[in-house]
Amino acid sequence: MPVFLAVQARQIAARALVLVEPALYDVARGVPVIEDHIDAITRARALSRSGDLFGYWSIVRPLMFGGPADRSRWDEERETAARFEAKQPPWGFGVASSAIVGVPTLVITGGWNAEYETIAGVLIEEGATHVQLRGVNHRPQDHSGFADTVERFLAGV
Q1: Strands of the 129-132 sheet, one edge to the other
Q2: How many Å apart are CA 26 and CA 119, to the nearest integer?
């Protein structure tokens, strides 16, 4: 987010961007899969703000970490829930997909999550190149083809 904002504000002149599963939710506002995610996190944060951290975790754990929240694991997961809840969600920053116009941009996703694929689709409309590296979910940087993909892209810039 910080680099994208700096590029958008023309505070830096990026030679190229390589975005790995970019959580640039603002660029895809209005798309149902994006709005559904934002609504779920907003509901969860309302619960935590009212003092119900487990209620927050009951929404967020299955959405972000897989599997249901379980009271029998709550003592070991409470700190993770609190740490995650304290993070600023990746929307509301006013980022625009047009920030990449004129900046060669590679978007790499894992092909596992409709939100990231939607964001990639919006960036493609602005000229980005999109590559899916499947099989490693949210960590395409761990894919055996990641380094070669990035090197090929940068060699062409």
Answers
A1: 17-20, 105-109, 129-132
A2: 9
